[in-house]
Amino acid sequence: MRTRSRGFTLLEVLVATTIMALAVSTALSALSTSVRNASRLSESDKLSVMAKRTMDDLLASPPLPYGRVLQGVYDPRETGLESGWRARVEPFEKVPGAPDEAGLERIVLELWWTHGNERRTLSIEGYRQKPRTS
User: Fold this and answer.
1) Residue 104 located in a structural domain
2) Contact assessment for residue 70 and residue 88, using Cβ atoms and an 8 Å cutoff
3) Is there a domain that residue 120 lies in?
4) What radius of gyration, in Å, describes the C-alpha atoms of the chain?
5) For a FRET experiment, which of 12, 48, 66, 94 has its CA 20 to 30 Å from that of 131?
6) Is residue 17 part of a domain?
């Protein structure tokens, strides 16, 4: 009479190894995607702060010419990316019967940056009362 020895057969070990390999490769793939998305989010977070700072500077600046494109680039050491901005100032609203200084201006700011070979943009708008001219 033969007694069965304890342990795993070669087939059981191969099946278990295959299942484990599939599980590990799926987990690593999901982790890789998560890291890539976190990196992308970090880029847009940095650039959102830069856009707000640029918009604040434009809103606080003296009268800007209507319709003309204003632009600049950011220092790559500051953002970690090749990036810049373009802005345009346009009249938005004028109160009827009020002097010209009583109207509002709209500032449209577009931030751009490159990620790999792809160019991405973020647009924001700000409004201010027309600055008085001396």
Assistant:
1) yes
2) yes
3) yes
4) 29
5) 48
6) no
How do the residues of the chain divide into helix, strand and coil, expressed in percent and rounded to 5?
A: 45, 30, 25
pLDDT by 10s per residue, the chain, length 134: 566 667 788 899 999 999 999 999 998 888 888 887 776 667 778 888 889 999 999 999 888 888 899 999 999 888 788 999 999 999 887 767 766 666 788 999 999 998 888 999 999 999 998 877 65
The CATH number of the domain where 82 resides is what? 3.30.1300
Distance CA 16, CA 104 (A): 70
Q: Which domain holds residue 76?
A: 44-129
Report the domain count for the chain: 1
Decide if 58 is inside a domain: yes
User: Alpha-carbon distance 6 to 52, whole Å?
Assistant: 68
